[in-house]
Write a structure and sequence with these properties.
By secondary structure, the chain is α+β, with helices and mostly antiparallel strands. It is built from 14 helices and eight strands. Strand 4 (39-44) and strand 5 form a beta hairpin. The protein binds a DNA duplex through residues 27-28, 120, 123-131, 133-134, 168, 171-176, 178, 212-218, 221, 234-239, 253-254, 278, 282, 289.
Length: 289
DNA sequence: ATCCAGGATCTCC
DNA sequence: GGAGATCATGGA
């Protein structure tokens, strides 16, 4: 990886395993807009960032070297060796090999914990385009204005005032009460986000699941996408289907059975495997009736 | 119209 | 402790 700053723009070259379309469209994050082919605008960490990929370079703008190094290198997980991960996962596993060949440019973003928590509460029993809309509604209503028609995801303090009625107007549906409970428990530190790095993955999971509306899957997403616990294996309908289809050849009732296999097969890389499989399954419609 | 979505909870046995 | 119904909302 190599990068230079030029007119408030970072130009990245000499990289591998990076495809901005795959990274954003693979279902791990929700606050992005497609401007053009391989040109996206994202909203994260109270900032708007363009990412434009062409040939063998990626441009990030507006962005100076300081922000790139302090925020975006970590956010895009640019210091992780994905070639090694992909090689390891592809070994003796034709299914993952295929999924990785299909979208080898995925990287697991390192997102903000609070945003991730609220976003994945909204995600339950919902479709991705709708999830994006609801998060957009909430951001417009409570978040900082960054540009014309672009609002940051609200902070904890900004969401403290949110009422059940207002949240329902944002189309959260039955999840409104869950969001209120999450905000309350983060505020009173029943769920202490600042302490997350000190907790074991199991402790972290139990802690998050004290929130109403946070079960195993939502907790796993928060843990994986914002706390770098790469051993978890969030299992939604798509992951369940792709696992049943390729690895079990039967209908699985207990999700723990899937988690057990994922742990045995992929260990600390299970989170990566999950993302390749999820994206592949969704794009190809694997197991869908 | 009926089914379903990056599920979790409540009910009832 | 484990199945089954229920929960808003909108697109197919």
């Amino acid at each position: 990886m190599n990068y230079i700053e030029e007119n408030n723009k970072i130009i990245l070259s000499d990289f591998d395993s990076f495809d901005i379309e795959e990274i954003l469209e693979c279902g791990q994050c929700f606050r992005f807009n497609k401007i053009d082919e391989k040109h996206y605008k994202i909203i994260a960490f109270n900032k708007v960032l363009n990412i434009k990929q062409e040939n063998n370079k990626v441009e990030f703008y507006p962005c100076n070297k300081k922000d790139f190094e302090n925020i975006w290198i970590n956010y895009f997980d640019l210091n992780t060796d994905y070639m090694k991960i992909k090689e390891e996962l592809s070994k003796n596993d034709d299914v993952l090999k295929e999924a990785i060949e299909y979208a080898g440019g995925i990287r697991i973003l390192k997102q903000d914990t609070f945003e991730c928590l609220i976003s994945f509460i909204i995600s339950q029993n919902n479709r991705i385009p709708m999830i994006k809309k609801v998060i957009e509604n909430i951001s417009c209503k409570y978040g900082n204005k960054l540009e014309e028609n672009i609002y940051a995801f609200p902070t904890l303090e900004q969401l403290l005032n949110a009422t059940n009625e207002e949240l329902k107007e944002c189309k959260t549906g039955f999840r409104a009460k869950y969001i209120i409970d999450a905000v309350e428990k983060v505020k009173n530190k029943t769920v202490n986000i600042d302490e997350f790095p000190k907790l074991s993955t199991e402790e972290l999971k139990e802690n998050l699941m004290q929130i109403k509306g946070v079960g195993i899957k939502v907790a796993d997403c928060v843990i994986l996408f914002s706390n770098s616990r790469m051993e978890v294996f969030p299992t939604d309908v798509w992951v369940k289907r792709v696992m049943e289809y390729f690895y079990f050849d039967k209908y699985i009732i207990n999700i723990k059975e899937i988690h057990k296999l994922a742990n045995e097969k992929w260990g600390n890389y299970a989170g990566y495997a999950q993302q390749y499989l999820f994206h592949y399954a969704r794009q190809k419609g694997i197991g869908k009736k």
